[in-house]
Amino acid sequence: MDDKRVGGDLSAGEERRVQVFTVAEEEAVPDAVFGEVVEGGTNYNTLGWFQTSILLMKTQIGLGVLSIPYVLSVFGAVPGVILLLAVSVITTWADLECGRFKLAHPECYSLSDVGFLIGGVWGRELFGVSYYLYQVCVVGSAFIGMSTALNAVSTHATCTATFIGSLAIAAIILSSTPTLRPISIASYVGLVCILSAILVVAVAVNVQERPAGAPSTGPWDKQLLVVGNPSFQEAMLALSNLVFSFSGTPSFLPIASEMKNPRQFKKAALLCQGVVTSFIGIMVYYACGIYVSSPALGSAGPLLKKISYGIAIPGLLVTMTICTHLPAKWLMLRLLRGTPHLTANTVRHWVTWEGCVVFCVLISYIFASAIANFSTIIGLIGALLGTFLCMQAMALMRLYDEARDVKAGRRRNWRLTSWCLFVLAVGTFITVAGTYASIVSIVDIYQKDPGSAWSCDDNSNSV
């Protein structure tokens, strides 16, 4: 079969099961999203596989990885590591599913396009709105993480609400680049910075620095737990945090859409997951024990906390930029797809693009200002939206293509079908239970401090 026909308009009777990653990688697959690039217009398909992998890592290693030590402190080392590996396996499969589905259906840019294939107009809106809300909520959590960093470095030089407002302006400026290529270059620096900051905390606490939460004088015990004893609410909030640590998956399909050759996505995704599922979270927990903070960079003592957050700021900025850029581009595609203004250098193109960026940032700013607690906000995002977009959505993608195969007269792969049903069940449980735990936690926070929204308080001392 001609490879270039993959995922286009094959009839039900034609062969659809394609070994998508065995084709020669040098032969690029034309992307069906952005259409033809007019003279002087924007070419979006500029990413090589390694640049793609760096972008994937940066969507994963940013905010989420900073909560992994907290998760281990709740569950204990053994259950925590088992859960870490289990979530990693499921999300790695989901990441690879994004690459397979992109090659089978090159017209799909984001999960809203997937939803349209699976459920028509209603499916498009369900998947699309979930994807959009998820991304802007991640930007909101990035604002909180960045404001925590700025408070730590500056010793709370100004009101936290002022920091968040300044970050919103910075997000508009940094995210306005039309393609992902400049952001992918910045991601190299961001990735090195965030990993270096985590290593600084782990090494410093192991060598000489006490965790910020440990007694300031005298002996102190890490009280490392082999097996924790959390309440149901604590366990589900921590599990939701863990899912968020691997929930860059909704961004993977849009990133694959800007690759020069989407057939190379598989090795980019595997490299990303190999780095993300690393020993960093375990190392920080071993260093700090029960005194680990969320985000983890707050675990160090006063001096090391400033240093680690200072190193991490570029990495957090890049995360904020990527997560603002992607939903803004999704919105622009909804408005301009199928018109020459999508790639042409016109006034309508630029007004639409900048308006989409500003709109995304505005929603993220409101979200970040209303819920100003790091572990709670990422728990809510991970449970309510991240789980559905990382687990259930990917299982439905595979089941959709399996159903097409059955209609075409081929045998169903029952092992794969069973795996998809298992992922659906696990994801649904985490969605329901994790959302409940997060909402209860938010209610508790507001009962203790009704003025925590749009607060000027120093959030670097509250984690």
UniProtKB/TrEMBL annotation:
Give start and end of each Amino acid transporter transmembrane domain: 46-439
Q: Which family does it belong to?
A: Belongs to the amino acid/polyamine transporter 2 family.
| Membrane disposition | Multi-pass membrane protein
Question: Which subcellular locations apply to this protein?
Answer: Membrane
Presence of keyword Transmembrane helix = yes
Protein name (record): Transmembrane amino acid transporter protein-domain-containing protein
Write the record's keywords in alphabetical order, separated by commas: Membrane, Transmembrane, Transmembrane helix
- Keyword Membrane on entry: yes
Alphabetized GO MF terms = L-amino acid transmembrane transporter activity
